[in-house]
Task: structure prediction
Amino acid sequence: MYLKKNEMEKIKFFLKKKTFFFRKKIFNSNRIFNRNTIWFIILKKNNKIGIGECNPLLEKSVSKNRFENELENLSKRVVSLKKTEVRHYHKYISYSSIFFGLEQAFLSLKNQFPVLYDSEFFHGKKGISINALIWLNSFKKKNKGSVIKEIENRIIEGFSFIKMKISANFFDYQYSVLKKIKKKYPFIKIRVDANGSFENMKKTLYCLNKLYDLSIIHSIEQPISSGYWKNMSKICKQSKLPIALDEELEGIHELKEKKRLLDIIHPEYVVLKPSINGGFYGSKEWILEANKRKIKWWISSSLESNIGLNAITQWTFMMMRKQHLKYSNVDSHVHGLNTGVLYVNNWISPLEIKEGSIWYNPSLKWKIFF
Result:
């Protein structure tokens, strides 16, 4: 008995969700993270499987019920339309993380999960340079010795690029820690991320220029809250320290608006997070427009599980290769892709962090259980 062509090509769509728990409570200047519930799209077709992660943790104004309803409605659309290109479903999706999840699912269905992009990275031949990450909770006890020890541990592990969460409220204390780090490790490079915690323009510029004078600070992400384009533009023009836009990009999905924002603010860098910047499609638009304006960029994860991180790392490597960038620990092309280590119950995967880079080890197997 032979199956009809349309039966052979029928797509099966499954939704699963899992709650991930952080190894320890972490926080930035805006919020505390204890756990994270993530939804997964699983597609099956012609003995192939695709998996995509929908992680709304960093998206603004997410209603759990609305989010789940949109996923349920999307599953019906995919089964009925039978199209396996994400562009056919754009108008039915309001959440960036759902669009990104479907995008991952279709790509890995086409190439057979866990492959999204066949490359030297996927075959374990090249890694991607990444930064270590020091969260704000490391400064809570105001113990300089423990913070410096944590940074030393990252250096011993092979990191020469570190990202540090900072807050306007802790600035004097954090600045004193950074002075000690500079004295002991003058070769280190540090990105600081304020998550929009500065308010007063005069104080903001004063603090940024103090950081610049340390000479070990690479840049600062999102010094003030998003939405104040004129103020951010002034900071970019007047600050000695290079500015990177992060939260500023969230919620801007129209190409015309992306161009307008970059033209008005013209930062030194933009930070792309596929989960909140419209998936690979939306993030690539930002990159192309940034390149036209000689604005540099790097990619960051958004507290995804290893399934989402697998997708982002493969895409990041592919984008670097397309842009003819060197795979070395140089300037802006050190990415923020190490958040997978934060979960106690993350999926077991071939992703490994070695000597300041993330690698895909083909000899290791995935273990995914829902």
About this structure: The first helix runs from residue 5 to 8. The mean pLDDT is 92.
